[in-house]
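User: Please predict the structure of the protein below. I'd like the answer in C-alpha coordinate form so I can feed it into my own downstream comparison script.

Assistant: Understood. Taking the following sequence of 74 residues as input:
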Amino acid sequence: MTDQHNPKVDPDNQSNTEKDPDDWVTGDEPMTGAQTSYLKTLTEQAHEPDAFADNLSKAEASKRIDALKAKLKL
Protein backbone atom coordinates (compact mmCIF):
# COMPACT_ATOMS: atom_id res chain seq x y z
CA MET A 1 0.00 0.00 0.00
CA THR A 2 1.39 3.42 -0.95
CA ASP A 3 0.88 6.72 0.81
CA GLN A 4 -1.47 8.81 -1.24
CA HIS A 5 -2.36 12.41 -0.62
CA ASN A 6 -5.98 12.78 0.46
CA PRO A 7 -7.24 16.35 -0.18
CA LYS A 8 -10.36 15.67 1.88
CA VAL A 9 -8.34 15.49 5.09
CA ASP A 10 -5.61 18.01 4.22
CA PRO A 11 -6.20 21.14 6.34
CA ASP A 12 -3.97 23.15 3.99
CA ASN A 13 -5.86 22.12 0.88
CA GLN A 14 -5.95 25.05 -1.54
CA SER A 15 -8.69 23.71 -3.78
CA ASN A 16 -11.08 25.69 -5.91
CA THR A 17 -14.08 25.06 -3.66
CA GLU A 18 -14.41 28.81 -3.05
CA LYS A 19 -14.68 30.42 -6.43
CA ASP A 20 -15.54 34.05 -7.13
CA PRO A 21 -19.23 34.21 -8.08
CA ASP A 22 -18.25 36.22 -11.18
CA ASP A 23 -16.40 33.10 -12.39
CA TRP A 24 -19.30 30.67 -11.87
CA VAL A 25 -20.42 28.89 -15.04
CA THR A 26 -24.01 29.00 -13.78
CA GLY A 27 -23.75 32.42 -12.15
CA ASP A 28 -26.21 34.00 -14.59
CA GLU A 29 -28.96 31.52 -13.76
CA PRO A 30 -31.73 32.60 -11.38
CA MET A 31 -30.89 32.29 -7.69
CA THR A 32 -31.82 29.01 -6.07
CA GLY A 33 -34.67 28.52 -3.65
CA ALA A 34 -32.20 28.19 -0.80
CA GLN A 35 -30.52 31.45 -1.76
CA THR A 36 -33.90 33.19 -1.99
CA SER A 37 -34.90 32.05 1.48
CA TYR A 38 -31.54 32.83 3.09
CA LEU A 39 -31.25 36.24 1.43
CA LYS A 40 -34.77 37.16 2.55
CA THR A 41 -33.93 36.16 6.13
CA LEU A 42 -30.67 38.13 6.11
CA THR A 43 -32.27 41.25 4.67
CA GLU A 44 -34.87 41.14 7.44
CA GLN A 45 -32.23 40.65 10.14
CA ALA A 46 -30.10 43.48 8.74
CA HIS A 47 -33.13 45.78 8.31
CA GLU A 48 -32.25 46.18 4.63
CA PRO A 49 -35.36 45.10 2.70
CA ASP A 50 -34.09 46.82 -0.46
CA ALA A 51 -31.20 44.32 -0.62
CA PHE A 52 -33.71 41.65 -1.66
CA ALA A 53 -34.99 41.28 -5.21
CA ASP A 54 -36.77 38.31 -6.79
CA ASN A 55 -34.87 38.57 -10.07
CA LEU A 56 -31.28 38.15 -8.84
CA SER A 57 -28.88 35.72 -10.46
CA LYS A 58 -27.05 33.07 -8.43
CA ALA A 59 -23.90 35.18 -8.49
CA GLU A 60 -25.66 38.40 -7.46
CA ALA A 61 -27.49 36.61 -4.63
CA SER A 62 -24.25 35.08 -3.39
CA LYS A 63 -22.55 38.49 -3.27
CA ARG A 64 -25.47 40.05 -1.39
CA ILE A 65 -25.57 37.13 1.05
CA ASP A 66 -21.84 37.52 1.72
CA ALA A 67 -22.20 41.29 2.25
CA LEU A 68 -25.13 40.88 4.63
CA LYS A 69 -23.36 38.11 6.56
CA ALA A 70 -20.37 40.42 6.98
CA LYS A 71 -22.60 43.27 8.15
CA LEU A 72 -24.32 40.97 10.64
CA LYS A 73 -20.97 39.45 11.66
CA LEU A 74 -22.12 35.91 10.89
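That's the full C-alpha coordinate string. The chain has two helices and no strands.
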